[in-house]
Sequence to fold (147 residues):
Amino acid sequence: VNPAAFVLNIGTNDIKDPRKARPREVADGVTTSVVAQLEATWPRAKVVVLALLPRAPREFPITSTSEAWDEGNAYYRHIKEINARLEEAAARDPRVTYLDCSPGLLSANGTRLPRTTMGDYLHPSLAGYRVLADCLAPVLRRITDAA
Fold:
């Protein structure tokens, strides 16, 4: 097996309780543990680290059509900090690409998380997965074309 690239979409489960979230530990776990292991095992492969996706607390049954994506959202600050750390780490490693597909999942002004793209405010809907695929495809194409 000789993969050209790995795509990591990890970390959000580590902040399931925003009161106990440790953004530095989450980001370090992704970069110093997972990415380092992939690089050691497959030294020629590239790694694409996806930004943590926006999310909102889930109350069942879900009755709203969208949730706020701003300081009022319990996850907002943690996800922003983790993503900033992931982006900084990727900038220091030429084999790692940081990719933030979040803007395509949010409302046009970036302040709402709609159920049309994040069906349960944690997992992408079919439309949300299309956004991720469209965001990721050119990056993977560039990596595989260069391989």
